[in-house]
Amino acid sequence: MTPDQVRGGLWAVVPAAGRGTRFGGDLPKQYLPVAGEPLLVHTLRALLAHPGVQGVMVVLADGDPHWPRWSELAGGPVLTCTGGAARADSVLAGLEALPREVRADEFVLVHDAARPNLRREDLQRLLERGRDDPVGAILAAPVRDTLKRAGDDGGIDGTEPRERLWRALTPQLFRRLQLSRALRAAIDAGVAVTDEAMAMERQGLRPLLVEGAEDNLKVTTPADLALFEFLLQRRGAGNREKGMENAPSRAGGAP
Ligand SMILES: Nc1ccn([C@@H]2O[C@H](COP(=O)(O)OP(=O)(O)OP(=O)(O)O)[C@@H](O)[C@H]2O)c(=O)n1
Ligand SMILES: C[C@](O)(CO)[C@H](O)COP(=O)(O)O
Protein backbone atom coordinates (compact mmCIF):
# COMPACT_ATOMS: atom_id res chain seq x y z
CA MET A 1 0.00 0.00 0.00
CA THR A 2 1.56 3.27 -1.11
CA PRO A 3 1.94 6.05 1.51
CA ASP A 4 -0.84 7.96 -0.22
CA GLN A 5 -3.29 5.11 -0.01
CA VAL A 6 -5.58 5.09 2.99
CA ARG A 7 -7.12 1.67 3.73
CA GLY A 8 -10.69 1.62 2.51
CA GLY A 9 -11.97 4.47 0.36
CA LEU A 10 -14.11 7.12 2.02
CA TRP A 11 -17.07 8.90 0.53
CA ALA A 12 -17.15 12.68 0.37
CA VAL A 13 -20.21 14.92 0.52
CA VAL A 14 -19.77 18.12 -1.52
CA PRO A 15 -22.39 20.81 -0.77
CA ALA A 16 -22.90 22.61 -4.12
CA ALA A 17 -26.45 23.91 -3.75
CA GLY A 18 -25.61 27.53 -2.92
CA ARG A 19 -26.61 30.58 -4.93
CA GLY A 20 -23.38 32.56 -4.58
CA THR A 21 -25.16 35.78 -3.59
CA ARG A 22 -21.96 37.38 -2.19
CA PHE A 23 -20.23 36.69 -5.50
CA GLY A 24 -22.99 38.29 -7.55
CA GLY A 25 -24.03 37.47 -11.08
CA ASP A 26 -26.61 35.05 -12.43
CA LEU A 27 -24.48 31.88 -12.63
CA PRO A 28 -23.98 30.16 -9.26
CA LYS A 29 -20.28 30.54 -8.46
CA GLN A 30 -19.64 26.77 -8.39
CA TYR A 31 -20.25 26.79 -12.16
CA LEU A 32 -18.02 29.76 -13.00
CA PRO A 33 -15.34 28.68 -15.50
CA VAL A 34 -11.65 28.56 -14.58
CA ALA A 35 -9.26 27.26 -17.27
CA GLY A 36 -12.32 26.19 -19.23
CA GLU A 37 -14.00 24.10 -16.53
CA PRO A 38 -16.38 24.99 -13.71
CA LEU A 39 -15.09 25.54 -10.20
CA LEU A 40 -17.06 22.46 -9.08
CA VAL A 41 -15.16 20.20 -11.51
CA HIS A 42 -11.82 21.45 -10.17
CA THR A 43 -13.02 20.70 -6.64
CA LEU A 44 -14.26 17.20 -7.50
CA ARG A 45 -10.97 16.37 -9.26
CA ALA A 46 -9.01 17.55 -6.23
CA LEU A 47 -10.95 15.08 -4.09
CA LEU A 48 -11.05 12.16 -6.54
CA ALA A 49 -7.34 12.52 -7.36
CA HIS A 50 -6.65 11.00 -3.91
CA PRO A 51 -6.84 7.18 -3.83
CA GLY A 52 -8.41 7.36 -0.37
CA VAL A 53 -11.61 8.89 -1.80
CA GLN A 54 -13.96 6.21 -3.09
CA GLY A 55 -16.72 8.46 -4.42
CA VAL A 56 -18.47 11.80 -4.06
CA MET A 57 -22.06 12.75 -3.30
CA VAL A 58 -22.63 16.17 -4.88
CA VAL A 59 -25.51 18.08 -3.30
CA LEU A 60 -27.19 20.23 -5.96
CA ALA A 61 -29.76 22.99 -5.80
CA ASP A 62 -33.30 21.86 -6.59
CA GLY A 63 -33.68 21.99 -10.37
CA ASP A 64 -29.97 22.72 -11.00
CA PRO A 65 -29.79 22.84 -14.84
CA HIS A 66 -26.00 23.07 -15.05
CA TRP A 67 -24.73 19.77 -13.60
CA PRO A 68 -25.65 17.37 -16.47
CA ARG A 69 -23.25 19.19 -18.83
CA TRP A 70 -20.27 18.58 -16.53
CA SER A 71 -21.08 15.32 -14.79
CA GLU A 72 -18.67 13.24 -16.93
CA LEU A 73 -15.64 15.39 -16.10
CA ALA A 74 -15.42 14.77 -12.37
CA GLY A 75 -12.84 12.02 -12.65
CA GLY A 76 -14.46 9.33 -10.54
CA PRO A 77 -17.70 7.91 -9.06
CA VAL A 78 -20.14 10.76 -8.46
CA LEU A 79 -23.72 10.59 -7.21
CA THR A 80 -26.05 13.56 -6.75
CA CYS A 81 -28.93 14.57 -4.51
CA THR A 82 -30.90 17.75 -3.82
CA GLY A 83 -29.84 20.17 -1.07
CA GLY A 84 -31.74 22.55 1.13
CA ALA A 85 -32.13 26.16 2.19
CA ALA A 86 -28.93 26.33 4.24
CA ARG A 87 -25.55 24.64 3.94
CA ALA A 88 -26.30 22.41 6.94
CA ASP A 89 -29.53 21.21 5.30
CA SER A 90 -27.57 20.35 2.16
CA VAL A 91 -24.85 18.49 4.03
CA LEU A 92 -27.47 16.50 5.97
CA ALA A 93 -29.26 15.64 2.73
CA GLY A 94 -25.96 14.47 1.26
CA LEU A 95 -25.18 12.26 4.27
CA GLU A 96 -28.63 10.69 4.12
CA ALA A 97 -28.34 10.05 0.37
CA LEU A 98 -25.00 8.19 0.59
CA PRO A 99 -25.05 4.56 -0.61
CA ARG A 100 -26.42 2.05 1.88
CA GLU A 101 -23.01 0.32 2.08
CA VAL A 102 -21.54 3.40 3.81
CA ARG A 103 -21.88 2.21 7.40
CA ALA A 104 -23.21 4.46 10.17
CA ASP A 105 -19.81 4.43 11.93
CA GLU A 106 -17.76 5.10 8.78
CA PHE A 107 -15.88 8.35 8.38
CA VAL A 108 -17.18 10.69 5.67
CA LEU A 109 -15.52 13.82 4.28
CA VAL A 110 -17.48 17.05 3.80
CA HIS A 111 -15.85 19.54 1.42
CA ASP A 112 -17.18 22.81 0.03
CA ALA A 113 -17.71 22.93 -3.73
CA ALA A 114 -16.35 26.47 -3.38
CA ARG A 115 -12.90 25.24 -2.25
CA PRO A 116 -11.20 24.08 -5.49
CA ASN A 117 -7.56 24.36 -4.41
CA LEU A 118 -7.36 21.48 -1.94
CA ARG A 119 -3.84 20.06 -1.82
CA ARG A 120 -3.38 16.29 -1.95
CA GLU A 121 -0.94 16.35 0.97
CA ASP A 122 -3.46 18.26 3.11
CA LEU A 123 -6.18 15.70 2.39
CA GLN A 124 -3.71 12.90 3.16
CA ARG A 125 -2.78 14.52 6.49
CA LEU A 126 -6.45 14.97 7.43
CA LEU A 127 -7.25 11.33 6.62
CA GLU A 128 -4.25 9.99 8.52
CA ARG A 129 -4.77 12.08 11.67
CA GLY A 130 -8.55 12.35 11.58
CA ARG A 131 -9.17 8.62 11.31
CA ASP A 132 -7.13 8.09 14.47
CA ASP A 133 -9.23 10.60 16.41
CA PRO A 134 -12.26 9.38 18.39
CA VAL A 135 -14.38 12.31 17.14
CA GLY A 136 -12.97 13.39 13.78
CA ALA A 137 -11.00 16.34 12.46
CA ILE A 138 -11.03 19.40 10.25
CA LEU A 139 -8.47 21.16 8.12
CA ALA A 140 -7.83 24.61 9.55
CA ALA A 141 -5.29 27.45 9.39
CA PRO A 142 -4.01 29.44 12.40
CA VAL A 143 -4.98 33.11 12.41
CA ARG A 144 -1.87 35.18 11.66
CA ASP A 145 -3.40 38.67 11.34
CA THR A 146 -4.47 40.98 14.14
CA LEU A 147 -8.27 40.84 14.46
CA LYS A 148 -10.37 43.97 14.95
CA ARG A 149 -14.00 44.20 16.03
CA ALA A 150 -15.83 46.85 14.01
CA GLY A 151 -18.28 49.40 15.40
CA ASP A 152 -21.45 50.49 13.58
CA ASP A 153 -19.62 53.60 12.36
CA GLY A 154 -16.80 51.55 10.78
CA GLY A 155 -14.40 52.51 13.52
CA ILE A 156 -12.47 49.99 15.59
CA ASP A 157 -14.27 48.93 18.78
CA GLY A 158 -11.39 46.76 19.91
CA THR A 159 -8.80 44.12 19.12
CA GLU A 160 -9.65 40.44 19.61
CA PRO A 161 -7.01 38.21 21.17
CA ARG A 162 -5.81 35.89 18.40
CA GLU A 163 -3.95 33.33 20.51
CA ARG A 164 -5.24 29.86 19.65
CA LEU A 165 -7.65 31.19 16.98
CA TRP A 166 -7.85 29.13 13.80
CA ARG A 167 -9.82 29.54 10.54
CA ALA A 168 -11.90 26.45 9.81
CA LEU A 169 -11.41 25.07 6.30
CA THR A 170 -12.74 21.95 4.60
CA PRO A 171 -12.66 18.98 4.17
CA GLN A 172 -14.04 18.09 7.58
CA LEU A 173 -14.04 14.41 8.60
CA PHE A 174 -16.66 12.82 10.82
CA ARG A 175 -18.56 9.57 11.25
CA ARG A 176 -21.69 9.44 9.11
CA LEU A 177 -24.42 8.84 11.72
CA GLN A 178 -22.84 10.95 14.46
CA LEU A 179 -22.57 13.94 12.11
CA SER A 180 -26.08 13.42 10.75
CA ARG A 181 -27.52 13.40 14.27
CA ALA A 182 -25.52 16.49 15.27
CA LEU A 183 -26.68 18.41 12.20
CA ARG A 184 -30.30 17.32 12.74
CA ALA A 185 -30.10 18.48 16.37
CA ALA A 186 -28.75 21.90 15.37
CA ILE A 187 -31.37 22.35 12.66
CA ASP A 188 -34.18 21.31 15.01
CA ALA A 189 -32.85 23.77 17.62
CA GLY A 190 -32.88 26.57 15.03
CA VAL A 191 -29.11 27.03 15.38
CA ALA A 192 -27.38 28.07 12.13
CA VAL A 193 -24.19 26.00 12.17
CA THR A 194 -21.72 27.28 9.56
CA ASP A 195 -19.57 24.18 9.50
CA GLU A 196 -19.85 20.50 10.51
CA ALA A 197 -17.48 20.92 13.48
CA MET A 198 -19.85 23.47 15.03
CA ALA A 199 -22.63 20.90 15.03
CA MET A 200 -20.32 18.38 16.72
CA GLU A 201 -19.13 20.99 19.25
CA ARG A 202 -22.79 21.58 20.22
CA GLN A 203 -22.81 17.93 21.24
CA GLY A 204 -19.92 18.59 23.62
CA LEU A 205 -17.34 17.03 21.27
CA ARG A 206 -13.89 18.46 20.42
CA PRO A 207 -12.85 17.67 16.85
CA LEU A 208 -9.12 17.74 16.08
CA LEU A 209 -7.59 20.71 14.24
CA VAL A 210 -5.28 19.61 11.41
CA GLU A 211 -3.25 22.42 9.87
CA GLY A 212 -3.86 22.94 6.17
CA ALA A 213 -2.49 25.30 3.53
CA GLU A 214 -3.56 28.93 3.52
CA ASP A 215 -4.31 28.65 -0.21
CA ASN A 216 -7.18 26.19 0.39
CA LEU A 217 -9.35 29.22 -0.26
CA LYS A 218 -13.14 29.40 -0.36
CA VAL A 219 -14.27 31.25 -3.48
CA THR A 220 -16.78 33.76 -2.10
CA THR A 221 -16.07 36.93 -4.13
CA PRO A 222 -14.64 37.72 -7.60
CA ALA A 223 -11.25 38.45 -5.99
CA ASP A 224 -11.16 34.88 -4.65
CA LEU A 225 -11.85 33.52 -8.13
CA ALA A 226 -8.99 35.61 -9.56
CA LEU A 227 -6.68 34.23 -6.88
CA PHE A 228 -7.62 30.63 -7.74
CA GLU A 229 -6.99 31.35 -11.43
CA PHE A 230 -3.52 32.63 -10.50
CA LEU A 231 -2.78 29.59 -8.34
CA LEU A 232 -3.88 27.24 -11.11
CA GLN A 233 -1.70 29.00 -13.69
CA ARG A 234 1.25 28.89 -11.31
CA ARG A 235 0.75 25.15 -10.81
CA GLY A 236 0.63 24.64 -14.57
CA ALA A 237 3.85 26.61 -15.02
CA GLY A 238 5.46 24.55 -12.26
CA ASN A 239 4.45 21.31 -13.98
CA ARG A 240 5.93 22.54 -17.29
CA GLU A 241 9.22 23.41 -15.57
CA LYS A 242 9.31 19.86 -14.17
CA GLY A 243 8.71 18.47 -17.66
CA MET A 244 5.20 17.39 -16.69
CA GLU A 245 3.61 19.16 -19.64
CA ASN A 246 1.22 16.24 -20.12
CA ALA A 247 0.32 15.99 -16.44
CA PRO A 248 -3.44 16.36 -16.07
CA SER A 249 -4.12 19.96 -15.11
CA ARG A 250 -5.84 18.65 -12.04
CA ALA A 251 -6.44 20.69 -9.00
CA GLY A 252 -5.24 19.03 -5.88
CA GLY A 253 -1.83 18.20 -7.32
CA ALA A 254 1.33 19.33 -5.63
CA PRO A 255 1.69 23.12 -5.85
N1 LIG B 1 -28.09 26.05 0.93
C1 LIG B 1 -26.79 25.87 0.64
C2 LIG B 1 -25.83 26.93 0.81
C3 LIG B 1 -24.50 26.69 0.49
N2 LIG B 1 -24.15 25.47 0.01
C4 LIG B 1 -22.77 25.20 -0.36
O1 LIG B 1 -21.92 25.38 0.76
C5 LIG B 1 -20.63 25.82 0.30
C6 LIG B 1 -20.16 27.01 1.11
O2 LIG B 1 -21.17 27.99 1.07
P1 LIG B 1 -20.93 29.50 0.52
O3 LIG B 1 -19.51 29.71 0.15
O4 LIG B 1 -21.58 30.42 1.46
O5 LIG B 1 -21.75 29.43 -0.85
P2 LIG B 1 -23.09 30.21 -1.16
O6 LIG B 1 -24.09 29.94 -0.09
O7 LIG B 1 -23.45 29.87 -2.57
O8 LIG B 1 -22.59 31.73 -1.10
P3 LIG B 1 -23.45 32.98 -0.57
O9 LIG B 1 -23.50 32.81 0.94
O10 LIG B 1 -22.59 34.14 -1.00
O11 LIG B 1 -24.78 32.92 -1.24
C7 LIG B 1 -20.75 26.17 -1.17
O12 LIG B 1 -20.10 25.16 -1.93
C8 LIG B 1 -22.26 26.18 -1.42
O13 LIG B 1 -22.59 25.74 -2.73
C9 LIG B 1 -25.09 24.44 -0.16
O14 LIG B 1 -24.74 23.34 -0.61
N3 LIG B 1 -26.39 24.67 0.17
C1 LIG C 1 -17.50 25.39 6.05
C2 LIG C 1 -16.65 26.63 5.92
O1 LIG C 1 -16.04 26.66 4.63
C3 LIG C 1 -15.59 26.62 6.98
O2 LIG C 1 -14.89 27.84 6.98
C4 LIG C 1 -17.48 27.92 6.06
O3 LIG C 1 -18.07 27.98 7.35
C5 LIG C 1 -18.56 28.01 5.01
O4 LIG C 1 -19.20 29.28 5.22
P1 LIG C 1 -20.19 29.81 4.10
O5 LIG C 1 -20.71 31.12 4.58
O6 LIG C 1 -21.28 28.75 3.98
O7 LIG C 1 -19.37 29.94 2.86
How would you describe the overall organization of this protein?
By secondary structure, this protein is α/β, with parallel strands linked by helices. It is built from seven helices and eleven strands. The strands form three sheets. A seven-stranded mixed sheet has the order 5-4-1-6-10-7-11, sandwiched between helices. The chain has a two-stranded antiparallel sheet with strand order 2-3. It has a two-stranded antiparallel ribbon with strand order 8-9. Strand 2 (33-34) and strand 3 form a beta hairpin. Helix 3 packs antiparallel against helix 5 (176-188) and helix 5 packs across helix 6. The longest helix is centred in the last third of the chain and has 20 residues, at 222-241. The model is unreliable at 1-7 and 248-255 (pLDDT under 50). The site of cytidine-5'-triphosphate (CTP) has 22 residues, from strand 1 and helix 3.
Q: Describe the largest sheet.
A: 7 strands, mixed
Number of strands: 11
Give the overall average pLDDT: 92
Rg, rounded, reads 18 Å
Helix-strand makeup class = alpha/beta
Distinct bound molecules: cytidine-5'-triphosphate, ligand LQXTBERG
Shape: globular
Query: Strand-residue fraction?
Result: 15-25%
Estimate percent helicity.
25-40%
What is the rounded distance between the termini?
Answer: 24 Å
Q: How do the strands line up in the largest sheet? A: 5-4-1-6-10-7-11
Order of helices and strands: EEEHEHEHEHEEEEHHEH
Query: Which regions contain 5 or more consecutive residues with pLDDT less than 50?
Result: 1-7, 248-255
Catalytic activity: 2-C-methyl-D-erythritol 4-phosphate + CTP + H(+) = 4-CDP-2-C-methyl-D-erythritol + diphosphate
Protein name: 2-C-methyl-D-erythritol 4-phosphate cytidylyltransferase
InterPro entries: IspD, IspD/TarI, IspD/TarI_cytidylyltransf_bact, ISPD_synthase_CS, Nucleotide-diphossugar_trans
Site (Positions MEP for the nucleophilic attack): 162, 218
